[in-house]
Amino acid sequence: MKHKDGKPGSHPDKNSRAFPMAMMFVVLCGLSFYLGGIFCSERDKIEVKDVAKVVSSPKESSVAPLQIKSTAFPECSSDYQDYTPCTDPRRWKKYGNHRLTFMERHCPPVFERKECLVPPPEGYKPPITWPKSRDQCWYRNVPYDWINKQKSNQNWLRKEGDKFLFPGGGTMFPRGVGAYVDLMQDLIPEMKDGTIRTAIDTGCGVASWGGDLLDRGILTVSLAPRDNHEAQVQFALERGIPAILGIISTQRLPFPSNAFDMAHCSRCLIPWTEFGGIYLLEVHRILRPGGFWVLSGPPVNYENRWRGWNTTVEEQKSDYEKLQELLTSMCFKLYDKKDDIAVWQKASDNSCYSKLTYPDAYPPKCDDSLEPDSAWYTPFRPCVVVPSPRIKKSVMESIPKWPQRLHVTPERILDVHGGSASAFKHDDSKWKIRAKHYKKLLPALGSDKIRNVMDMNTVYGGFAAAVIDDPLWVMNVVSSYAANTLPVVFDRGLIGTFHDWCEAFSTYPRTYDLLHLDGLFTAESHRCDIKYVLLEMDRILRPAGYAIIRESSYFMDAISTIAKGMRWSCRGEDTEYGVEKEKILICQKKLWHSSTQSSR
């Protein structure tokens, strides 16, 4: 072979070419080993630095506290004094009338959110304290004349001077709620011995039924929709009785399955037999196995009552038979009946539900793809949620009686990731210490100044359990994005609800005396704007009410800045252990009146 210049090319033999290549390979390997050793040693140094940073104290941390620009929030106009953002009558016309869906939760988009302070009504006063508040409230705090004119003949309430008085009457118990509940207890002896602890009242009126049960050791969630005239839930909370805005329409109520020991409807006008019994299916879902459903009003006692119901005896008889058929198909049995009250009991075991697998069965059994506890904007399905066969100690006849059940580890804690008997006991002990510390920081806690309390992000209801002997009640809120611990709360004999704090809560303004949160912003600030959460707290907190904010030190400056802009007074305090990474803010909302209102 020749090069292109014509000179002969050299051809070295294969052995002479392999030697330098082998030497180069050895050199490269050695160099790689040397460089790799240097890199690894440097990586080890970096890892050590990271560990040192993790275990360093917050004072040594390079992360500065969150800072935001201070601002003074303006007052909302006076026509927003009863503003409920997600159940706002101003927005009802945007939604359909079918099954009253317009009364369900429909929150405004972000660009329509209010950044103003909701004013109290003209003449607002600090609420009457418990237990007097059960029987009376200031008229100017809930100035609704319509309900007074429409319901005074039924003894719901009556106006006397500057107060509303609550005689304890109702549509089905105009002679008084006490005698009505006495008859109910005769039909359901379990109401007397601590077996029944939690209840829900659908279509609650002014919550006289729930108010009476408090003295009998039964804690009731009174449920009613937002309306333009009656303000049932607002009256209930003004009286110091647990209540929440809600309606049985097209979506599940914000409670887990197998939660309540008893459900009640006193002429609540819910069409139980319509739409394939879909509303009864929801009652079945939220009732504990062995729990009771109590109905008074149409079509119960139709033989004697039909003339006053604007109907015929034949129509009412047909409605009653259809109701009984539906309840039987859902594994309810008629427990007892007398006068205007009928009581059905949900099956305690699952043997009855085998019939739901038949091809022509209605309603059918829900398939396994439907999560029983999914209850935040979850649409109804026309099927029966069959209780898990693993629930054995949570049925009515097996669950410990009140008050023992408060501190007994619920079996459903095992459904929570990381849940165990030891974790439950630790949480219980921790909150006893914390509550004792809170009372040192806020002496009003435990006095008649604080009645309506919300734990905004509870786990197992530990705070509520620690203050159980105080003259207050606690609404335990579990985030719809957090671990599902609400069944544990209910199994303890406490009440609560699911909620997403990126949205407004289902209540009227000025309905809680104390709001408590523990690391809520640490958990949710990546989703929810701190400003809007605090503005929502201001909306639902009563004037002169308190907030206990337990948070990472990182958020404290920002929270204090926003609170100042809402006219709150706050002071920082150490936790019970005095750690630097976590602090407590004790805040109080100022009582102020709208500058646009005339003086009286």
Automatic annotation (TrEMBL):
TM stretches of this protein = 21-39
User: What is the superkingdom listed in this entry's lineage?
Assistant: Eukaryota
Membrane topology qualifier: Single-pass type II membrane protein
Biological process annotations from GO: methylation
What InterPro entries does the record tag this protein with?
Put_SAM_MeTrfase (IPR004159), SAM-dependent_MTases_sf (IPR029063)
Q: Name one GO molecular function term.
A: methyltransferase activity
Q: Where in the cell is it found?
A: Endomembrane system; Membrane
Q: Which organism is it from?
A: Populus euphratica (Euphrates poplar)
Q: Does the keyword Methyltransferase apply?
A: yes
Family to which the UniProt record says this protein belongs: Belongs to the methyltransferase superfamily.
Q: What is its EC number?
A: 2.1.1.-
Keyword line: Glycoprotein, Membrane, Methyltransferase, Signal-anchor, Transferase, Transmembrane, Transmembrane helix
Per the record, the gene is: LOC105128186
Protein name listed in UniProt: Methyltransferase
UniProt xrefs under Pfam families: Methyltransf_29 (PF03141)
What Gene Ontology cellular component terms go with this record?
endosome; membrane; trans-Golgi network
